[in-house]
Amino acid sequence: MxxxxxxxxxxxxxxxxxxxxxxxxxxxxxxxxxxxxxxxxQTNTIKSASKRISKWLDQKIDSMNVIKTFIKNLDHETHxxxxxxxxxxxxxxxxxxNVYVGYEDDIILSGLKWDRPTNYNTIRRPWYIxxxxxxxxxxxxxxxxxxxxxVVVAICTPFLEKNxxxxxxxxxxxxxxxxxxxxxxxxxxxxIAYLMDRHGKILLHPNKEQELRNSMYGLLTKERTTTVNNExxxxxxxxxxxxxxxWFIIAQLNKSSVYEKINLQLIINxxxxxxxxxxxxFLNMLYTKKQNISDEKLKxxxxxxxxxxxxxxxxxLIADSKNKILFFNSLFTQYLRLNKLDINxxxxxxxxxxxxxxxxxxxxxxYKKIAYAKHFKKSQEHSFEFIFNNETYYFEIxxxxxxxxxxxxxxxxxxxxxxxxxxKEKIYKKEQEDILFxxxxxxxxxxxxxxxxHQWRQPLNSLSIMVGNLLQFRQFGRLSDEMFEENxxxxxxxxxxxADTIETFRNFYKPSKKCQKFQVDKAIDEVFYIISPxxxxxxxxxxxxxDEREDMTCLNYKNEFQQIVANLMHNAKDAIIEDKSYSxxxxxxxxxxxxxxxxxFKDYGCGISKKIENQLFQSFATTxxxxxxxxxxxxxxxxxxxxxxGSLTIKNYSNPTEFxxxxxxxxxxxx
Length: 671
Description:
The structure is a single chain. By secondary structure, the protein is an alpha+beta fold. The protein has 13 helices and 23 strands. Strands 1, 2, 3, 4, 5 and 6 form a 6-stranded antiparallel beta sheet that branches. Strands 8-7-11-10-9 form a 5-stranded antiparallel beta sheet. The protein has a 5-stranded antiparallel beta sheet with strand order 13-12-16-15-14, sandwiched between helices. α1 runs parallel beside α6. The protein starts with a helix and ends in a 7-residue tail after the last strand.
């Protein structure tokens, strides 16, 4: 009987030790998890609070930029009451305690009634000096405002007034506006959170008596990154920097509370841990839900503000889902030749017709696109021109529907851009290209006449000699029928040669209307044949390098290709003459790769300076100083790209100078 008993005791002891080991292991694991959870919770909590406050500051900074946009084009000496009214409205809309603007001529305008103290000098105030020196939006250090009897900060933005006077616009923010954001941060172990500046001064604290005093943690906040578990005296600190400012969120835990709870009984610890975890999850769910609602509201506001900022160079109008006009800028009314009173408290409908400056066809089309954007929730674009006071204007209009996160229509934004200068630049560029093409035609005509004169010189001399011989033989009575027929045949041969020369040149300079099959190497030979008299006089030879096994057949525009070849050969000739090069050979190498002909032109002349590398293929850019027009390479590149669907590039600038033509072997007949 004892054996079974001892056997059970032994088994019980074994299971007891195993269970004890499991409990101990579980305790150690839970202890590590608890420590990690505290660290993560503090990190996430203060970073989340920092992010919320940063968004709040972003919103206020954006509001100041909008306020600046409204008043910077107003003369404060002419419209002080109007500016004060704008400041008052801005204060209410942007939720500032007050909004004021100071000018370099020591004038200050405020949204609230303000009795200016004696000897108050605007341009010597710290907020004015600091903002103008930085020339950017500045958040002042917190200070106690006597008027509001609160700790406040000022967000100040510099700008230049319409008459170019320096000014600074500021919005007053009581720090109590974010008190709940700081003091409601959930921290375990009766921890507290407070706000501190870069100097270690406490700005917000659960105990108001601690505010504006120095914090014992001030020496460790030089780091702007999130730092957790800095132990100092009786406390454990964590901190995170708030962007756009010199503020830090500090989380403070009491050491005794932390370690007292950790040393509780294992079962109690496990129970508390489980309940705490469930409670944390539940609280986190509630917090996430509220945060999502808040983020959605902020996202809508950011969407409108971002559109406003991104398209600041355009006329802007914003309407709600019922077409009521909520906002428009001065540029919009300027483009439409309207008064602001014509749009205030009106609806974006055809009956109101704010686009009445345009003819009926244009504004009818605009309202159709507005209806389309609203119904199908898709953006619309439209370009149009109209004549006003005998002058043509070009405009581009964009209609953007504003949708919520669940794709519900919230309203629309209309962007109106003056494209007059851009269109006039296109027209001017087209006119210049037409002029260049006309000049090129005249230059081609001159080239043809010069080449024909070279080709005709010898045949004409022969004709002159033969006719002279006939006259002399006739005068001396020695003109026989055989001699007459022989000289006549020689004359006819030369006359046919002259006619063939004219036909060859006529076909060469006539633009191609259709693609035609031709041999690339023979087309280059024809070009050299036409220009050869002058080249031979200068002793310049042409050397064509090709693979005899390759088929040189190409379907493209032959004459246009030959025009480019002729231009490159003339450029090579000029470079050889200028340098008086020993090598008077133009090398042309032809390769066929992947249905494209790669044709390189090399010469060892004077080369091209890299100083004009970026302007080489531009209109009126020339390497020949006063002797060049600057249109040869420009037009050649234009023809290669737009007509031949190929390219013309420079591969090397000197020793040798090398240009490369890429010519598709099969070109579709599409014009």
